[in-house]
Amino acid sequence: MKDMENKLFIGVMSGTSLDGIDCALVRFEKSEIKIIDKKFFPYEKNLRHELTELTQNNRFFLSHLVRLSNEVGTAYGNAINKIIIENEISKKQIGAAGISGQTLLHQPTIDRPYTFQIGNISKVHSLTSINLAYDFRVTDINNGGQGAPLLPAFFDQLKNKNFIYLNIGGIANISFKLNKNYIGYDCGPGNTLIDLCAQKFLNLPYDPDGAHSKQGEVDKVILDKMLDDAYFKLPFPKSTGTDYFNQNWILKFFQKELSKLDVLATVTELTAQSIAREINAINSNNEKVIVYGGGSHNTFLINRIMENLRNYDVVSSELIGIDPDYVEAIAFAWLAKERFQNKTIDLTQITGSRNIKMLGECYL
């Protein structure tokens, strides 16, 4: 659509950490990104609890699922309206909002692959009355891709193309340029197993700054068994989710009695080493690793990653002028812009999709 050039775009991202919604109001000016505003909208406690239960157990009634989809859609719509109102802009100035959807299931490698996100898009539209782009992961799965990660395509159009980008959300993934192609894939668990243990053992939503993990001792026998999991041996392109790396996955390994702090230390080291293994295996001249996502605030985890990445300079995405908590939201704003301008996105080397196609669906 030609009238999209001077519009503002909104990115709405809710990731596998299940803590809430990152919302970014953005203007794209040629190769520049102007961030007008960014806000975090936490999920209500009960909603977060129910979403966590769903992703961990994968068992639910259909009526329960529909209700939660409506609640997430309402949360999306309210977040969009609030950022528009607080910035005193007209909805006519908004080109579109890109909606990530809340992923509950992600199975890209089975015989009949699928990815499943909730967040009733009709509910979002009824609340906001603006253009919406959505189902980005679904369209990639339908095109033979993994459905994730999608951000390498966003990084490919930035000026800073030669960095390795590390996202530590619920799941960790990396993006980097290899020869002439940008690629990216999920390394494995990011915050998800650490958060689960913090919730179970400490009654905390997460381990703040790794304060508890650093007090424990890593069980190297258990760590080696976890690192021997089949997922870590898969070649890219590959992606995973919290329906794989969940409490049932942890229980397979922790059969013997360990202290709570030792469990936290061990799953934290799993995240650090699984990330470092992938980056160390890259045959690249890149020397900087740009970190973003919630895990970038866990100083102990970052220190463990740095300890395992002696040849790299590990720094925050603030280096490129983007708040580490809003990189993904900004990327979804960009995905919305690309979709409403009918531009194709090449994910063939990233997710393994069959063709270069437009990504996502439009709700007008």
Describe, in short, the structure shown.
With 364 residues, the chain is an alpha/beta fold. It folds into two domains: 2-147 and 327-363, ATPase, nucleotide binding domain (Nucleotidyltransferase, domain 5); 153-320, 2-Layer Sandwich (Nucleotidyltransferase, domain 5).
What features would you describe in this structure?
This protein folds into two domains: 2-147 and 327-363, ATPase, nucleotide binding domain (Nucleotidyltransferase, domain 5); 153-320, ATPase, nucleotide binding domain (Nucleotidyltransferase, domain 5). It is built from twelve helices and 13 strands. The strands form three sheets. A six-stranded mixed beta sheet has the order 3-2-1-4-7-13. Helix content is 36%, strand content 22%. Strand 1 (8-13) and strand 2 form a beta hairpin. It is an alpha/beta fold and 364 residues long. The relative contact order is 0.18. The longest helix has 25 residues, at 62-86.
